[in-house]
Amino acid sequence: DKDIPARVTLMQLPSRNEIRVRNLFNVVDCKLHWQKNGDYLCVKVDRTPKGTQ
């Protein structure tokens, strides 16, 4: 059960077309931040430290 990845998907709306999909392992938290003009999206992913389970 620990090997189930977190899935981050960037979608185009209203068509719900998947633009980009990433499967990430050992994710603790994921935050999304839009640039002020809305041109760029930042995805910040916090992971568990290596060697920690």
UniProtKB/TrEMBL annotation:
Residues 22-50 form the Translation initiation factor beta propellor-like domain. Keywords: Cytoplasm, Initiation factor, Protein biosynthesis, RNA-binding, WD repeat. It comes from the Eukaryota. The keyword Cytoplasm applies. InterPro entries: EIF3B, TIF_beta_prop-like. One of its GO terms (molecular function) is translation initiation factor activity. The keyword Ion transport does not apply. This is Translation initiation factor beta propellor-like domain-containing protein.
